[in-house]
């Protein structure tokens, strides 16, 4: 029941548990291996998820151990690491790999006629699940928002509203017209970390800057408290999102607007 899916053959498609939507057999072990090109990321969205859980267990299975489950594995700096385990019938959040490869393992112990298994859609993408203009010539997560193209809009963490990928850095650059300022308002914010969001606490973070380098005036943001309204000092502004290889969250969504600076006569 194992499969290898290569992006040179299929850029998108579906994969399912054996026999889906009929019950899957007991005591099986399936590996779904996805291999993309160097600049691609894999995005996975489950459309149906229904795995058997023993009735009324004394306590929910920790990390889905010893029950029917789907396990997600990624490679971080040469290490194969387990990203998530999913069991039961709660639909998992959308996932994105941190690089061109990802593996899913499906194991079953039980047979019951009451469950369907799972169905999922996969896509190999290069846009990180972010709508915006890619920085010219860059395959990295770098996006540019110019006032001359659009006066307002939204931007988000990679793979939003699903889990953002680990070990990923994204740059969002805002370029206004002369005497314009950019205003940024966060509609949603969930970035794993402990303020002040330093590497010592293994925190992911969002950072703001009025320059092309670090802006010491502006603090990093992490956690679940939305930053207050952000306003740039001039017509250039930069936002950086950075995730490490430790934990996951669902990231952020923000609204931006370029506004003409009001000048008051003395």
Polypeptide structure, described:
Residues 1-125, 141-259 form the CUB domain. InterPro entries: CUB_dom (IPR000859), Non-NMDA_GluR_Accessory (IPR053207), Sperma_CUB_dom_sf (IPR035914). One of its GO terms (cellular component) is plasma membrane. The model has no long low-confidence stretch (mean pLDDT 92). The protein has strands spanning 3-6, 12-16, 29-35, 41-50, 69-76, 79-86, 95-96, 101-107, 117-125, 133-134, 141-146, 152-156, 169-175, 180-190, 205-209, 230-231, 236-242, 251-260. The chain has a five-stranded mixed beta sheet, with no helix packed on it. It has a five-stranded mixed beta sheet with strand order 10-11-13-17-15, with no helix packed on it. It has a four-stranded antiparallel beta sheet with strand order 2-9-4-7, with no helix packed on it. The protein contains no helices and 18 strands. A hairpin with a 6-residue loop joins β10 (133-134) and β11 (141-146). It has two domains: 3-125, Jelly Rolls, CATH 2.60.120; 133-260, Sandwich (Jelly Rolls), CATH 2.60.120. 33% of the residues are buried. The radius of gyration is 21 Å and the shape is elongated. By secondary structure, the protein is mainly beta.
CA-CA gap between termini:
76 Å
Number of strands: 18
Can you tell me the number of structural domains?
Answer: 2
Helix/strand structural class: mainly beta
Q: What is the radius of gyration computed over CA atoms, rounded to a whole number of angstroms?
A: 21 Å
Percent strand:
35-45%
- Strands of the widest sheet, in order across it, are 1-3-8-5-6
Assembly category: single chain
> Mind summarizing the main beta sheet?
5 strands, mixed
Organism: Parasteatoda tepidariorum (Common house spider)
Pfam family, one: CUB
Protein name: Suppressor of lurcher protein 1
Domain CUB: 1-125, 141-259
């Amino acid at each position: 029941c194992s499969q290898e899916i290569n992006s040179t053959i299929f850029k998108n498609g579906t994969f399912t548990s054996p026999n889906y939507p009929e019950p899957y057999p007991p005591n099986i072990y399936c590996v779904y291996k996805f291999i993309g090109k160097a600049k691609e990321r894999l995005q996975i969205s489950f459309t149906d998820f229904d795995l058997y859980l023993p009735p009324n267990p004394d306590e929910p299975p920790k990390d889905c151990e010893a029950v029917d489950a789907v396990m997600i594995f990624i490679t971080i700096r040469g290490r194969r690491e387990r990203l998530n385990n999913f069991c039961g019938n709660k639909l998992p959040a959308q996932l994105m790999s941190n690089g061109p490869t990802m593996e899913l393992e499906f194991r079953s112990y039980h047979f019951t006629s009451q469950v369907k298994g799972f169905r999922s859609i996969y896509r190999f993408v290069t846009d990180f699940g972010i709508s915006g203009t890619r920085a010219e010539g860059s395959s990295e997560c770098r996006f540019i928002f110019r006032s001359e193209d659009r006066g307002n809009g939204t931007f988000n963490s990679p793979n939003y509203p699903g889990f953002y990928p680990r070990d990923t850095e994204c740059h969002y650059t805002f370029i206004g017209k002369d005497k314009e300022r950019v205003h940024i308002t966060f509609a949603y914010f969930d970035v794993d970390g402990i303020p002040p969001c330093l590497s010592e606490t293994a925190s992911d973070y969002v950072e703001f800057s009025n320059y092309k380098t670090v802006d010491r005036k502006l603090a990093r943001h992490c956690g679940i408290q939305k930053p207050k309204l952000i306003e740039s000092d001039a017509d250039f502004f930069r936002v950086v999102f950075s995730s490490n290889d430790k934990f996951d969250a669902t990231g952020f969504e923000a609204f931006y607007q370029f506004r003409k600076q009001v000048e008051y006569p003395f």
